Amino acid sequence: MHVVGDLVGKEVVDSSGDRVGEVKDVEIVKGKQQVKSLIIKEGGAATKIGMGEKKVIPCNQVDAIGEKVMLK
Questions:
Q1: Dihedral of CA 20/70/14/31: which sign?
Q2: Which residues form the PRC-barrel domain (predicted)?
Q3: What letter would DSSP give residue 17?
Q4: CA–CA gap between residue 63 and residue 67 (Å, rounded)
Q5: Which of 32, 39, 55, 56 is most exposed, with minimal Cβ within 10 Å?
Q6: pLDDT in tens, 11-41
């Protein structure tokens, strides 16, 4: 499984189901092939013009990963 390739581009939603953004990159624990955190580009109107803010989400804040990434 290519974790980075599988996660990049997935929509990220909060516990209410509201869109938070999209996974842009993944931080890996060096030498362990374990995800440390997700780097997301926040959603909203600013994203449409390329000005969405990047945010780092620690792995312990992720509740589930399927078609979307669900945060706790």
A1: negative
A2: 6-71
A3: S
A4: 13
A5: 32
A6: 999 999 988 899 999 998 888 878 899 999 9
Alpha-carbon gap, residue 9 to 40, rounded angstroms: 9
User: In degrees rounded to 5, what are phi and psi of residue 43?
Assistant: -85, -170
The CATH number covering residue 36 comes to: 2.30.30.240
| CA–CA dist 28, 50 (Å, integer) | 26
Q: Are 67 and 9 in contact (CB under 8 A)?
A: no
What's CA 56's distance to the chain center, in Å? 8
- N-terminal to C-terminal alpha carbon distance within the chain: 24
In 3-state terms the chain splits into helix, strand, coil percentages (rounded to 5) of 15, 50, 35
Number of compact structural domains in the chain: 1
